[in-house]
Design a protein that fits this description.
about 525 residues, mainly alpha, Serine Threonine Protein Phosphatase 5, Tetratricopeptide repeat, about 75% helix
């Protein structure tokens, strides 16, 4: 289902959306969005260049990034930045020389060409792979972790290294990748979001690189400890426990971090008594070390506090999550609006939405699907949520139509636009803040059409469930897992929600309660 086809301006905006996604911890989504853009703009230099930058800056992938720089250059031989970066991230000395020649033609007169001359001068005295390794170290020192990891990967592939140097490169690259993962995790956590293991692409690469470092030095207790800690982040409890045990078997006296890692892994597996006993052991040992054990002591105390904390009720947990996630979404919307000239905090966006809805009229029309599709092409789901929410103050009928349009897109668009619509609906539903309203609205807006509908609508609940996992997996239990719908609810879905999209008759049915979109805000 494609209700909106991008033009060239839309392409540029979509690429900006990809950068925006990546900067806010949604790198997996950024790559999915790029794949979606590529369906309409195949062999496009700007699209390929965008993917190269995201692969390099947010995933530390040097070889893949260079492939996309070359694709961008083939698609657009005048693309100066692609030409320069294809040389900067070349995988061999021969390739560097070839691409440097291309860059000098494409970037004639550009002062950045001085960098290429410096590489050529350095190569007279140092092997190319060692120059790449030096670059990786310099970027690491300046906390430019994407470039550091990318150059380290290229150095490892460009030529042989001594055992010591290869170990340093692989360990350094693993740590740089973990820093990329940490930045994404912090961004999401600050907004109340989780970070599903499937989306932690940089962390998975970090673990693979660390595994190669361990093969080179299997007696390194610190690397085994890192492996344990990082496996915990992917919820791979058994592997985390095994790595912690290996680290403990190699650890010198006073190295306590594997103990707290193992305790955390045991807690993740549900073995809370064993986890508590290990954490107490770590705390006692850290206390004996005095000031040297202060960091380990805090880790152990934090874990013990988590194990002792009373479990919140479902309503308390949902209310807290709804507040954090919608507050985070509001912040995202403000940040996006700040990027637009004369945005007036979204006032112009709202004005445009009001104008377009007025032109369509009060009756339902699939033109509302086009309006919402276009908004989701141009803006992130948080900004669309804020704008449509504000629309309710001036045009409640158009507001209702926009919400139903979002449900249609969420069910019918199999690509990233459908996922954006799902995210919009998540923000909308959580915006009610009250747990009972959230669950009731979810039943009517999502579970009802999924249970009563056919075709794409039958998969709506699964698609929303998947997006809830991406936002915060706790929402599945708190919102999506509900008792079966009643006959009355199924009839409501048929005759109210689905009737505008399919051949359902609605004149014989009038709901006795408020509609879900009104109930959200106490209407």
């Amino acid at each position: 289902m494609k209700r909106y086809k991008r033009d060239n301006d839309d392409k540029i905006n979509s690429l900006n959306r990809c950068y925006f996604d990546a900067e806010h911890g949604w790198v997996h989504l950024a790559l999915d969005r790029l794949a979606d853009v590529r369906l309409e703009f195949a062999n496009d230099g700007q699209v390929e260049y965008c993917e190269a930058l995201i692969r390099k800056d947010f995933l530390g992938q040097g070889a893949v990034a260079e492939e996309f720089f070359l694709k961008a250059l083939r698609a657009d031989p005048s693309h100066k930045f692609a030409a320069f970066n294809a040389a900067k991230y070349a995988r061999s000395w021969d390739e560097f020389q070839r691409q440097a020649g291309v860059a000098r033609i494409a970037c004639a007169g550009d002062p950045d060409l001085q960098f290429l001359r410096q590489v050529e001068e350095g190569a007279q005295h140092v092997r190319y792979e060692d120059l790449l390794a030096q670059g990786a170290q310099e970027y690491q020192a300046h906390e430019k972790f994407g470039e550091s990891a990318a150059l380290a990967e290229l150095s490892l592939g460009a030529g042989p290294h001594s055992l010591e140097n290869e170990l340093a490169l692989r360990s350094g690259r693993a740590l740089a990748l973990r820093e990329l993962d940490k930045a994404a995790a912090n961004s999401r956590t600050n907004r109340g979001e989780g970070f599903p293991p499937d989306e932690r692409l940089a962390l998975k690469d970090a673990i693979r690189e660390l595994g190669k470092a361990i093969e080179l030095d299997p007696e390194d207790h610190v690397s085994w400890n890192f492996q344990s800690a990082w496996m915990i982040l992917l919820c791979r409890w058994e592997e985390a426990t095994a790595a912690a045990d290996k680290a403990l078997s190699l650890s010198p006296e006073g190295y306590l971090k594997p103990i707290t890692n193992k305790a955390t892994a045991l807690a993740g597996k549900g073995q809370e008594d064993d986890a508590r006993a290990l954490a107490m052991k770590a705390l006692e040992s850290a206390t004996k070390l005095g000031t040297e054990g202060s960091a380990d002591r805090e880790l152990a105390k934090h874990l013990l506090d988590d194990l002792a904390r009373p479990v919140a009720s479902d309503d308390e947990a949902l209310a807290a999550l709804a507040e954090r996630i919608t507050n985070g979404a509001s912040l995202i919307a403000r940040q996006e609006m700040a990027q637009w000239q004369n945005s007036s905090d979204g006032a112009e966006l709202l004005k445009g939405l009001q104008k377009r809805c007025a032109a369509v009229g009060k009756e339902w029309s699939d033109r509302y699907i086009r309006i919402v599709s276009e908004m989701l092409i141009y803006f992130c789901p948080a900004s669309v949520w804020i704008s449509i929410l504000k629309l309710s103050d001036s045009n409640s009928t158009a507001y209702e139509h926009c919400l139903y349009a979002a449900i249609y897109i969420a069910a019918n668009d199999p690509g990233v636009l459908g996922r954006d619509a799902c995210r919009f609906l998540v923000y909308l539903l959580l915006g009610a803040r009250e747990p009972a309203r959230i669950r009731r609205s979810y039943r009517e807006a999502i579970l009802g059409p999924a249970a009563a509908g056919s075709g794409a609508f039958a998969g709506l609940a699964d698609r929303m469930r998947s997006e809830l996992v991406s936002v915060n997996k706790a929402l599945v239990k708190l919102v999506a897992d509900q008792p079966p719908l009643t006959d009355h609810e199924l009839e409501h879905a048929c005759h109210i929600t689905l009737s505008r999209f399919q051949d359902f008759k609605s004149e014989s049915f009038e709901p006795k309660r408020r509609r879900w979109w009104s109930a959200l805000f106490g209407g």
